[in-house]
Amino acid sequence: MTNATLFYATQVSLDGYMEAPGHDIGWTEPDAELHAYMNEMERSAQLSLFGRRLYELMESFWPSADEAPGAPDEVVEFARIWRETPKVVFSSTLERVTGNARLVRGDAAEEVAKIKRETKGTINVGGAHLAASLLRAGLLDELEAIVYPVVLGAGTPLLPELTDRVKLRHVATRTFESGVVSVRYRVDGR
């Protein structure tokens, strides 16, 4: 069996922040075209890995987002995809997770290495701190920065606490009507 591809995609400002101060992500509101693209990314995953904070954020909205009156088709679709995709949540503080999520309290790198060996296809990574730790451990295969035409000046970096240089190879670029540009890279040597 071939190891799964571990993939991290996130929305980011031009100056490299995925959150503004105070964990503000209000500037990342995707239009229908971008949302459809992100739905396809989520649909292609066999499994999603989450850090605690992003899991809590997603869990607070997506399980019932498709029930909101007037919810756009792409939101309805993403909510269904999100509910159906199996999840592993890494946290030492969460008490429990819901639905088809599994909570892991141990070493994330060790558990993810095992999951990669046992899974085919794509595994999505959600959460900047989790993604950075998996990149440091040599487990992350691909990264995609969905760059919004905004400068935040401060916030949470795309890959916090990363101290070593990581060489990347360009895979693809896509420009959306909204001015958002998605740039995908593969970790060199993978």
Automatic annotation (TrEMBL):
InterPro entries on file: DHFR-like_dom_sf, RibDG_C, Riboflavin_Biosynth_HTPR
Listed transmembrane segments: none
Pfam families reported for this sequence: RibD_C
Annotated Bacterial bifunctional deaminase-reductase C-terminal domain residues: 5-181
GO biological process: riboflavin biosynthetic process
MF term (GO), any: 5-amino-6-(5-phosphoribosylamino)uracil reductase activity
PANTHER family (UniProt xref): 2,5-DIAMINO-6-RIBOSYLAMINO-4(3H)-PYRIMIDINONE 5'-PHOSPHATE REDUCTASE, DIHYDROFOLATE REDUCTASE FAMILY PROTEIN (AFU_ORTHOLOGUE AFUA_8G06820)
Protein's name in the database: Dihydrofolate reductase
